[in-house]
Structures are given as structure tokens and as C-alpha cells.
Design goal:
Layout: H1 2-9, E1 17-19, H2 27-35, E2 39-41, H3 56-72, H4 76-80, H5 86-107
Parallel strand pairs: 1-2
Helix pairs in contact: 1-2
């Protein structure tokens, strides 16, 4: 499934690096990313015989996106996707993003 998702992502020129967790650490996925001229930011599995290098600082930035998605899932309309139209769902996601960002601004000392 990961290779199918990557095929679409790798066609975008503005993407320079592709991040993922250890579950995506396979030679096939790394070859696919390298063939597209992108950088693989995937930590190696602990049982890998030849651990691959990755940019640890870029990998840490992935955590911010993970936390954002976790906060968005707290909004029922986003988590369950009851909307039939994509535009309505996008509106719900944008409203949830606005609410999350306002909470961050208000709670910052």
C-alpha cells in the first residue's frame, strides 16, 4: 500500500524529501524514493543488517504533523467524515484547523 501512496506523492516537484516511520523502511520503498530524486527520511528498523542513513532533524519535524492530525481527529466531523461532498468536508477540516490554531494562540503565555 505504501508504494501506491508514494507513486502519487513522488510526482510532485515541490516535494524534496519523503518521511515515514520504521514501517516504511524497505529497500523497495527506498529505491522508489531515490529513483524519483527525493530524499528518504525514514529511520532504519532495529533488525536491519545495513542501517540506512537519514536526517534526524527532518524526522523530528514529522512529529509536528502527527500531533496536528491527532488534534484534528478530536473533531467528530473530521474523524468520521459524514459529509458527502468533498467541499463540505474540506470546510470542516479548515474550521477544525482554525479552532486548533486559535487554541494554540490563546493558550500561549
Amino acid at each position: 500500500m505504501g508504494e501506491e501512496l508514494l507513486a502519487e506523492v513522488l510526482t510532485r516537484e515541490e516535494i524534496k524529501a519523503v518521511g515515514g516511520d520504521r514501517a516504511y523502511d524497505s529497500d523497495a520503498i527506498r529505491r522508489l524514493i531515490a529513483a524519483a530524486g527525493k530524499e528518504a527520511v525514514i529511520p532504519p528498523r532495529s533488525n536491519r543488517r545495513q542501517p540506512a542513513d537519514y536526517d534526524k532533524e527532518k524526522y523530528k519535524q514529522r512529529n509536528k504533523a502527527e500531533r496536528l492530525f491527532c488534534k484534528l481527529k478530536g473533531y467528530r466531523a473530521v474523524a468520521t467524515r459524514y459529509d458527502q461532498l468533498a467541499t463540505m468536508f474540506l470546510g470542516g477540516v479548515l474550521a477544525a484547523l482554525l479552532a486548533v490554531s486559535l487554541k494554540c494562540i490563546v493558550s500561549t503565555p
